[in-house]
Every structure is written in C-alpha cells, then in structure tokens.
Write a structure and sequence with these properties.
Elements: H1 75-80, E1 85-90, H2 96-109, E2 117-121, H3 127-133, H4 137-146, E3 151-154, E4 164-170, H5 175-188, E5 189-197, H6 199-206
Parallel strand pairs: 1-5, 2-3, 2-4, 4-5
Length: about 210
C-alpha cells in the first residue's frame, strides 16, 4: 500500500511573534531634559494680532493616561502636606524658558492634567502671560481661577496664584527676584517643583540638598 506523505503542520510559534499591546501602561515620572526639540503644537495663547476666542486649553496628547478629577485641597491640608519633590534642569538664562516648555510637554504626556501645572518665570514674562495681560488682569486671573489649563505667571505676581500639584520655574533672569521667587514656587507646589536654570544659583537659594 503506497505511503501518502503527510502535510506539513504549521505550528503557531512559526507564525511570528505576536505584538503585545502597550495600552493601559502609565508613563513614569517625567525627567525633563532641556535642549533642541522638534516643532510642537502651538500652545494656548501664543501671541497673535486678535483674540476672537479664549486660548485653547491644553490637553494630554493621545495615549496619555487621563487622571480623574481631584478634590480641592483644604487650607489645613496645604499647610500639613509633605515637602514637594524637587527636580533640577540645568539651563542658561536664555534657554530656561525653552526647558520649562519641554518640562510642561513631558508632564502632559505622562498624564498630568493641564490644570495641575503652574509655570513661573523669574525674568521676562512668558509670551502667553504677556498676551493675556494685554486684555486686563481680570480675565487673566479668571483663567487661573478656572483651573482647567496650564497657567503662566511671572514672579512679581505669582504670590497671588494658588497651590497646584506641579510648579515649573524658568530662571530666565531677574537676579533681584530669584531669592523670593524660588521659595514662593516651592510653597505653591503640592507635589513636584521643577526648576530650570543655573544649578548653582538654584541650590544657593533652595539649599544644597536639592
């Protein structure tokens, strides 16, 4: 009786590796690094000739984990909260603002809500703050009080800002205000303080343990 050759069997392992979905994985705490970066989507309120509508709210990029709404902190909780973690990003005075922008991008990519972030400049105002203040202080601070977007303020007025989970400081000048600006920023940071600037100057104000 003639033998019938067996048909070759294709084992599942021979079909190639299967892709493992990466969804549902929370990004680690961001480690912002200053330096050149590709062009990013325009930020809310990039200065323009007219203001037909309010600046677009910032939102986490696609794929980022969106945290649920957090309950507002009470005054008692703010005074008893732990000292915020401090991250230091070395940058020149000219590059401090760009480093702060990069830090904000990474925070949003990691899942931080835009309303969690306050950006303070020690020298020249952030372009968004300068643009919004040109329409008056009332609408400018109304956006802060709404708490649904990244808010930019210079050190001279940052004392009016409330506590937010993350504060990013761009040490882009203002030698005479730095001594007061950094402790103020730390007091406004609920969980994380990111300082972008000269490490020696920052350590001299906040302490060598930073």
């Amino acid at each position: 009786m003639p033998l019938i050759p067996e048909e070759p069997q294709i084992h599942e392992s021979a079909q190639g590796p299967r892709a493992t979905p990466a969804s549902g994985r929370t990004a680690p705490t961001p480690r912002p690094v200053p330096g050149p970066r590709p062009a990013a989507p325009s930020r809310p309120g990039r200065p323009g000739p007219l203001r037909p509508t309010p600046p677009a709210q910032r939102a986490p990029r696609d794929g980022a984990v969106k945290p649920g709404p957090s309950a507002p902190a009470s005054p008692a909780a703010a005074t008893t909260s732990a000292v915020p973690q401090v991250q230091l990003i070395p940058a020149s005075a000219e590059g401090a603002l760009d480093a702060a922008e990069e830090a904000v991008d990474l925070l949003l990519e990691s899942g931080r809500a835009p309303g969690d972030v306050l950006v303070i400049t020690t020298g020249e105002q952030h372009p968004w703050a300068a643009h919004e203040l040109s329409f008056g202080e009332a609408p400018y601070w109304a956006q802060h009080d709404a708490g649904d977007d990244v808010f930019y303020a210079d050190a001279a007025v940052a004392g009016r800002a409330g506590v937010r989970p993350v504060v990013v400081v761009a040490v882009n000048g203002g030698d005479d205000t730095l001594t007061a600006a950094l402790p103020l920023a730390r007091a406004r940071a609920g969980a994380l303080l990111i300082c972008c600037g000269d490490p020696q100057r920052i350590n001299a104000v906040l302490g060598a343990g930073v």
